[in-house]
Please model this.
Amino acid sequence: GLPVAGHQGGVALDMAAGMQTIANFGLHQEPYYVDYIDRADGTRLYTHQSPGTVVLDLGVALATTNTLKGVLKSGTARRALSDFPRPAAGKTGTQDDNTNAWFIGFTPQLTTAVWVGDPKGYTPMTSATVPAFKPALAQLGKSTVQGATFPLSIWAAFMEPALVFEPILDWPAPPA
Model:
């Protein structure tokens, strides 16, 4: 399962950082905030550079990616992402009593973590406890928020336009 502590800062960033390592063939890049800074005259003042650290064997990263692609093809995310237009992989997650729900997904170009929960505590996200969720959950035939509901929908709604100008890429097959 996924570690969930939605009201603790940085967890979504940690999830994305971990998943990008798998997506990036086992090369881990520490998260950073500034990619580059240009001066007023257009010359570059600073460009973030990091060689990264290899933390996973290439075969392990590709096998894990292949497994996580299955979540979208035949697992918990299959219905919601059946129309997603490019190769992708990811993992849904739901904490006990539906107090936190996640989807962390990636393509070869972009990794995104989506968390849905109460930043002030462990509030069960159900039609009964959060009436605002009731109409959308009813459309899904659900009564609780899970990783494969709102987080997954938010992820897809963000990723499709974010990647619209990127080529459709896939990872190589994992070793036998």
